Amino acid sequence: MQNAFEIKKNEIFLNNSFPTQKNLLLEYFSKLKIEFSDFLKRANQLDDDIIEKESLLTSSYLIENQFVTVFNQINTATKHYLFVKEFCIY
User: Fold this and answer.
1) What is the pLDDT of residues 5-47, one digit of tens each?
2) Which residue of 8, 22, 64, 90 pairs with 28 in a disulfide if CB–CB is 3.0 to 4.6 A?
3) 21 class by beta-carbon count within 10 Å (0-12 exposed, 13-18 middle, 19+ buried)
4) Half-sphere exposure of residue 80, counting CA atoms within 13 Å on the CB side?
5) What does the alpha-carbon distance between residue 88 and residue 12 come to, in Å, rounded to a whole number?
6) Count of H helices and E strands in the chain?
7) Phi and psi, residue 50, nearest 5°
């Protein structure tokens, strides 16, 4: 996952088109959300006696909210410099 982020980050830096940069980020986080949803479906199938299942499912609500926040920030970003700084410089 870290490698995929680095590749996407480099793609964004190499592309000067702000709309394309936004689309690249939306694509990356959409794929990440799909992977998380698949993981969560598998976690829901775990035996209820597994203590960690409850913790995982509880924290999934916070993670889902973070996805909403990230998508909102990407969609409302209007300035190239702030956009790249906020999402890509880590």
Assistant:
1) 888 888 888 888 888 888 998 999 999 999 999 999 999 999 9
2) 8
3) buried
4) 9
5) 8
6) 4, 0
7) -80, 115
